[in-house]
From TrEMBL:
SUPFAM superfamilies from the UniProt entry: S-adenosyl-L-methionine-dependent methyltransferases
Stored CDD domains: AdoMet_MTases
GO molecular function: methyltransferase activity
Organism of this sequence: Paractinoplanes ovalisporus
Domain of life: Bacteria
Keyword Methyltransferase (UniProt): yes
InterPro entries: Methyltransf_11 (IPR013216), SAM-dependent_MTases_sf (IPR029063), Thiol_S-MT (IPR052356)
GO biological process, alphabetically ordered: methylation
Name of the molecule in the record: Class I SAM-dependent methyltransferase
Keywords: Methyltransferase, Transferase
Domain Methyltransferase type, chain residue ranges per copy: 48-141
Amino acid sequence: MTVATGFELHRARGPFNAAFFSVMGPYIEWNVRHHKRRVYADLPATVVEIGSGVGANLRYLRPGSTLVAVEPNEPMHGRLRAAAERRGVRLDLRARTAESTGLPSGSADAVISSLVLCTVTDPAEVLAEIRRVLRPGGTFRFVEHVAAPDGTPTRTLQRLLRRPWAWTFEGCSCERDLAARLRGAGFARVDLTPYRLHSPFITFNTQIAGVAEV
Ligand SMILES: C[S@@+](CC[C@H](N)C(=O)[O-])C[C@H]1O[C@@H](n2cnc3c(N)ncnc32)[C@H](O)[C@@H]1O
């Protein structure tokens, strides 16, 4: 199925991913919580999020805040709405892609993402859109999984598993050098920290978290 936004939604894998992230969300969250607390600290009252999924990052917003959620995968929307209501966050949900949010230029103080730049079709296009939407001095705060360094066993495994991984997780790549993409995207400042998780999802364990400022 292709939704109006141009996002390719698979009839079975769209709902599978919505269920997967509902069930596995707490486990993923436990693993990345320290990094998220650091980069999502002191978010403003209105936050734009790309690829909100089922609402993993709502806990980092204060109750009464507004989340402008750019999420093209409609099977995620019901759970996302329910989670926002539980957290007392006002939800402005846009069924659009991060490549083309439709948001006004220079309108956002903060854009956040977690585990999304691995899945978008063109990270360079998404980073350009984020820069367009942020006001001068605004920040993009991210937690993402990335390719392991060349020549490591994890990198070999990422290479071997890239096709079934991408098939299962709707185009997710475990082979992207997103640190280089972020540093080359034209932000005024990029501070990022690479780290490694110790989860059974080995291809997913090499990650970065940080803040990029316009
Ligand atoms: C791995 S999930 C992560 C969800 C959530 N951010 C989290 O941390 O649990 C990737 C999310 O990106 C969304 N997504 C995929 N392609 C996208 C695009 N082009 N623009 C915006 N979101 C996209 C998917 O629908 C999904 O919700």
